[in-house]
Specification:
A hairpin with a 2-residue loop joins strand 1 and strand 2. The strands form 2 sheets. The protein has a 6-stranded antiparallel β-sheet, with no helix packed on it. Strands 6-5-8 form a 3-stranded antiparallel β-sheet, with no helix packed on it. The protein has 2 helices and 9 strands. The chain is mostly beta strands. It has one domain: Jelly Rolls (Sandwich), CATH 2.60.120.
């Protein structure tokens, strides 16, 4: 019989293991099964280059994102100039090298399964 490497685990984003706040945004993280999953809420007026870049200290967002968008609309511009708009219900794979901002007056809420482990982490 094969050895079981992981145990079943359940955690709620309603009771995060860690919360990171930043101007016009908030990130809630849970660690489950050796993985980190995060829910971010970006308020109207939020823009990565204005509100997270000072924390990340990189020219663009270098976090890879594999995420599901729950609410709002967001504009994403890749370093190569590719642009797209995301909305509630979208599943996105966004490689490193991008900027992003909230469109309109509704907060953007995303659940990310890959790129939030070091996102907006103050050193």
């Amino acid at each position: 019989m094969p050895k079981v490497l992981e145990r079943a685990a359940v955690k709620s984003l309603e009771k995060p293991d860690e919360v990171r706040g930043f101007d016009k945004g908030r990130l809630e993280l849970v660690n489950v099964g050796g993985r980190t999953v995060g829910r971010a809420v970006f308020q109207p007026g939020w823009k990565w280059s204005a509100h997270v870049k000072p924390i990340a200290k990189t020219n663009s967002c270098e976090a890879p994102h594999f995420q599901y968008q729950i609410a709002g609309r967001m504009q994403i511009v890749m370093d190569d100039g590719t642009e797209f708009t995301t909305k509630a219900g979208d599943v996105m794979n966004i490689p490193p090298g991008h900027d992003a901002w909230v469109l309109g007056d509704e907060p953007v809420v995303v659940v990310d399964f890959q790129g939030f482990i070091d996102y907006a982490k103050r050193k």
